[in-house]
Write a structure and sequence with these properties.
Low-confidence stretches: none
Number of helices: 7
Helix content: 40-55%
Radius of gyration: 19 Å
Strand content: 15-25%
Structural class: alpha+beta
Strand order of the largest sheet: 1-2-3-5-4
Mean pLDDT: 82
Largest sheet: 5 strands, antiparallel
Amino acid sequence: MKLFSFHRGRTRNVVLVYPLKIAVKFPRFDFFAGVKALLKILLLRLSGKKAHFKYDVKWVLHGDHERAAPMSLSYLWFRGLIANMNERSFYRSDRLNPLLVPTYFSLYGIFNIQPLVIPLKQYNLKIWESCRSRTDSIDEINSFNTHTWDSGNFTQRKDGTIALYYYGSSKAWPLVKKYGRRFTNILKTT
């Protein structure tokens, strides 16, 4: 029997600890890519391209931590840390939301501990389409981080309901909060 397995995600790395039945999520850091982005800005400054320099500095230093392109320091260095802190915060603010897999423990975003779950593979498109059809506006789910919904981040509980084990995106949270109780019963009603 395997004791551990390691998985690499877009924002975090996960260690599955089978004997303890837990998943430990660690933030991903692209340190050298961040240094490269800073060097690019420095080279732009030295080359005298002021029009691009102002935009690049603004984006690289203050860009969105959830948007990969163009690369910002917050995305390259802090996206996983922020996702861990978001999961902790979101779970604490709505512990009774049945769509959320519990976050047992979080150490300031350095790592999160959640229960070990088995991802649903065969229902990915069906779940996404069912979630989308149950929103108040058909395009609402598209405007809230589709990565959370269409990347197979669901697990099925023993009672037939589903839960999200990745909900660290601040763009997905409004939908989770608004529709969590409606979405969790999707497999029971389809």
